[in-house]
Amino acid sequence: MMRLVEKSQAERIVIVTIRAVIDHMVLLVGDIAASAAWYDAFLGVLGFRKTRAHVYLGPDDWVVDLREASDSAAAYGRYNAGLNHIGLRVEDADTVLAVRDAFAAKGFEVPEPQIFNGKTTAVFFADPDGMRWEISHEISALL
Predict the structure, then answer these.
(1) Residues sharing a CB contact under 8 Å with residue 132, sequence separation 6 or more, in sequence order
(2) 126 with 142: CB under 8 angstroms?
């Protein structure tokens, strides 16, 4: 949406307001079969549904698409250039723990919850390639 604000006859200011939301995320993975099993379980716990092989639609209508990486692709490195982790927010600390427990019940290793600033509970899950997904309940500290 664009709107024109008149300040004077000689000066005009254009204010551009754009609302962008996540539409999709493509993750390149080292082993498509291992990753698909992990993402079937993990994203299933979060309410995503599989729409076709290796494609998952989330409750807020954004998509995670898994694709096999090339043979020359480097493995995920937590502090390498590129994506560090994906953070998803849930309603409260109990929901963070429920996600952790539900994923553990599917047979996957899950880390212990972390507490930040005495108020934010978060769990960082790692997929088969090491890509980290954070589930927490507070609005991002980055805001």
Answers:
(1) 78, 84, 85, 86, 124, 125, 126
(2) no
Which overall architecture, per CATH, does domain 21-71+84-136 show? Roll (3.10)
Could you tell me if 124 and 85 are in contact, meaning their C-beta atoms sit under 8 angstroms apart? yes
pLDDT in tens, the chain (143 residues): 445 455 555 566 667 677 767 889 999 898 999 999 999 999 999 999 999 999 999 999 999 999 988 876 677 777 776 788 898 989 899 999 999 999 999 999 999 999 988 888 999 999 999 999 999 998 665 55
Residue the block writes with tokens 């020359």: 72
Q: Locate the domains of the chain by residue range.
A: 21-71+84-136
pTM for this entry: 0.76
Helix (H, G, I), strand (E, B) or coil at 49: strand
